Amino acid sequence: MDLSPDKQFLTLAILVASSSNGQHLKSELHLKMDQALLTLHNQLTEEVQVFYTSDYCYKCVYQRLATVKPNNNTSAVISTKFTLTLRVETHTRNETLCRWSHTYGEGGHYSLWIQMSEAGGETSCAQTVDKSPNNVYLPLLVFTLLLAIITILFNVGPSICSRCRSNLVKTICCQGLQYSLDDDGGDVGEAATKAKPTRLRSLDTFRGFALTVMVFVNYGGGGYWFFQHAPWNGLTVADLVMPWFVFIIGTSVVLAFRSMQRRGVGRMQLLRKITWRTGVLVLLGFCFLNYSPRDGPLSFSWLRIPGVLQRLGFTYFILALLQTFWGQKEVPLRSHHWWDPVQDVVLYWPQWVIIILLETVWLCVTFLMPVPNCPTGYLGAGGIGDNGLYPNCTGGAAGYTDRLMFGDNMYRYPTCKEMYLTTQPFDPEGVLGTINSIVMGFLGMQAGKIIISYNGFNIHILGRFLAWAVVLGISAAILSKCTRDGGFIPVNKNLWSLSYVTCMGCFSFLLLAAMYFVSDVKGWWGGQPFIYPGMNSIFVYVGHSLLGFYFPFSWEMNFQQSHWEQLFQSLWGTGLWVLIAYLLYRKKFFLKI
Fold first, then answer.
1. pLDDT over threshold 50, residue 14
2. What local confidence, expressed as pLDDT, does residue 266 receive?
3. Which residue numbers are catalytic?
4. φ, ψ (nearest 5 deg) of residue 54
5. 183-210 pLDDT tens trace
6. Which contacts qualify for 16-20: CB closer than 8 Å, 24 or more apart?
7. Coil, helix or strand for 75?
8. Domain span including residue 95
9. Pair 195, 47 in one domain
């Protein structure tokens, strides 16, 4: 089998080989996940070239897939993640003979026959299926049903364990923490011990749900593309979890600082606590999770400076400062002022001024900052996108700013690299994106202020959650024009664009409202099992990042032809961390910083 190295461009065309006997090639080839085999049969008397592009790739330049000699055939392994558009051209005349789009199935074998039609002497292309593809969604369906059964059994457990005498069963099924608005959202250990009867379950459940999904997608998400980050614009499941986490950080900051304010904690003591927590988060991310030396074990020449924990730490630091200096206000008793309906906004107007100024900085730098050899305000991926006009402009001003500040010390394998064939490094946790991360956390702070301002009036809390969701959702729709690539500001997780923040803010308010209604208003759900990792979020995140690629959390897979083993491995590793969090909860161990 003659491999052509220049055809091994990542997921779209990994293997190309010429053979006079296509069946011989098929017998030797072992396809992997998200791959199909396309055999091109050229029955013309002239050489043809086949080009491809992914329909997910915005205005991308066609890439050469194969060259087929006259009366010969060539086989290529192609990606089945997204719809592909293929084009057949003559080698000498550059004339397009045919073009078609198709979503190929995993494990399928296809043949394309390029021949002269009997009537009229024109060239025609006909595609046939030599081997039916696998049902790529069958593993997902099976495991979803299994998880649904486990969930049902878990939820009907209280009615069963109420008739049981086993203390262990009662503990697993019935024990649930009660959470107080007056408790510190960060000091969960003391809360677990005291078990106050009015503490909000929904906050820890929200945090734990976001963290559980984060662990699952970090473990590969079963290999499904929609459990991985979007190549550039657009949303996948993996793009949802970090904004949710940032959102709940903001909510917890408001409730925690209000609790400390009532306990008489001074401003200097708060500042020391804020600085300590921020420093620990940044050091954890800087020294343990992003360490990737290039010149030996003690070299810092290629240490990634930005990172997830660094961004979370800095976001927490700014939000905590806002709450320390301009947020510690006692909510006045109900009065008849004109601003009563919006008191959760008016009372904190200095914070809003600062956030508006920060967002203005993001907008001005993003759309007005000149970037060498790139159009001003460019938000694309560069590479082969946008008709290949801006190959070195990945991320526009955001990428340029990070490259100026960090040089090589940043992420070199962005999600756009595979599809857009980019060469520039781009860090999704860069400087400009951190500004909008602060804005996202501030929306979470707004949720906390609503809970405080309307404490005891659940209908008002839920109503304002929904109102914020509607406003943010409409804003995201306007900014993106309800399209993936064609809006004023596309929804983009890599850039943490303004439309991405408003869209995620909408989802966050809706999800928090649902959990608040189910857990805290109606008491139908105690938050299990998500509440357990939610109360030990730092331990679970750092633990799965450091140990996630070691046994028993993962192993070297033997069956890579389908999603079965990888999906099982992803769910197994995630389940283990949920179990560890539950056991730590039983031991009343809560990692605090």
1. no
2. 84
3. 229
4. -90, 135
5. 444 443 443 434 444 568 899 999 999 9
6. 16/65, 16/66, 16/74, 16/75, 16/76, 16/77, 17/74, 17/75, 17/76, 18/68, 18/69, 18/72, 18/73, 18/74, 19/73, 19/74, 19/75, 20/72, 20/73
7. strand
8. 5-136
9. no
